[in-house]
Amino acid sequence: MTEIAIRVTEATVRYGDVTALDGFSVDVPVGGLVALVGPSGCGKTTALRAIAGFENLDAGSITIRDAVVSGATVHVPPEQRKVGMVFQEFALFPHISVAENVGYGVSGADRIHRVGDALRTVDLEDLADRYPHELSGGEQQRVAIARALAPSPDVILLDEPFSNLDAPQRDKMRRELRHIVRRTGVTAVFVTHDQAEALAIADFIAVMRDGSVKQAGPPDEVYARPASPWVATFLGDAMLFDGVVSDGHVTTDIGVVKTELADGSKAQVMVRPEWVMPSTSGTAQCTVTDREFYGHDQLLEITLPTGGVVESLISGRHPVRLGDKVDIDITDAIVFEAV
Ligand code: ADP
Ligand code: MG
Description:
Elements lengths: L3 E12 L2 E12 L3 E5 L6 H9 L6 E6 L2 E4 L12 E4 L11 H5 L8 H11 L15 H13 L5 E5 L7 H18 L2 E6 L2 H7 L2 E6 L2 E6 L1 H6 L4 H7 L3 E8 L2 E4 L2 E4 L7 E6 L4 E4 L6 E8 L3 E7 L5 E7 L9 E6 L3 E4 L2
Helix pairs in contact: 3-4
């Protein structure tokens, strides 16, 4: 069984009339790299601040390594939680060096060693004597991560850690964060509104909306088996087709799909573009009515005999062309009960 580093159970945080967290629950495994992902305003920052101890809970509880740190009668202060936090607007102290920034929260005889270790972890030993204004955005970000790591926390929390970086720096930092987590064994929770980033980096994602987690799991599972049309659409391109269940099947514009829903229920069948494969035959009924070529792959718009359209994402090397007559093969589909 996986050991749990952080367990948040039904946490509620209110700011006046606003309920920022509303029954938020998540389990973070030891050594995991977990992404909290959701649209702006869904409570991601509040969730991190609650775990770090900067917010009191109105209900629910938080345990770190089996010790209750937030609960009905408990509130362990942030400095006693062994949690490092990299804030969204991480501010380095401008008038002290990189090494002094990293050592800011560290005391004790081994301070110099800890600062050195943290700088080595983020590959910044050579820049220890520089000042923040002498660093690139990516280097500043690494200093902020080193500062969170220097006190040897059990857990680091990062709030939108890549949002201030340009695309190439962001790709590099994502890779670095994964390496840091593997090298140090620290447990990391990071927050992002960018679903592609969450899918790419994390080994576990929790999809948030309106203050609670709607679905959690490994990225590939949540992507392939979304629990609702909302999660499906938030995490990627999703097309929904309506139908009614009859004899254990739902019939839609894109074909017939098996389902366990009761006969007579209204259903929505969700497919992703890469689950739609065109094939050519003499009797094909559908038409390729638009095509965007991306090199590695291509996106087709396929018009169905009913007049509906479906998108298909296939290899750029597939020989299909605009105007071709095709059949479609649906390789995977999710059936939701329509509400
Ligand atoms: P996210 O990080 O997902 O964008 P936040 O956790 O920052 O979301 O905010 C969740 C909700 O709580 C939002 O509606 C936000 O406006 C509100 N909120 C956050 N902080 C405060 C605060 N200090 N006072 C009042 N409302 C707040
Ligand atoms: Mg935020």
